[in-house]
Amino acid sequence: xxxxxxxxxxxxxxxxxxxxxxxxxxxxxxxxxxxxxxxxxxxxxxxxxxxxxxxxxxxxxxxxxxxxxxxxxxxxxxxxxxxxxxxxxxxxxxxxxxxxxxxxxxxxxxxxxxxxxxxxxxxxxxxxx
Length: 129
What we know:
This protein is mainly beta.
């Protein structure tokens, strides 16, 4: 069964950190670009960080640049999102998604679309005191 499973969400105080994980199964992760997206209540889904399949190039939305870091460990079939300096505006359901590296696009475009190959079920992140 082909799937992505997110974990690591939870409740954190403003200024705190969380590390989200995205575990892939049923397909070879190294052939895919991976992105992290989030959706806050009443808002559209937003692409915040994307990473390429091989050289590890990254793209970040301005809203998270300098605070969040995306990384991947293909041997572990996992992608991570380290989130620092969290604030209440980061509260959302966070999703990871995969897009085949053979598709001709850029990381910025990938993070700006929702027509991707696989999606996880999401993990809730709540930033509150």
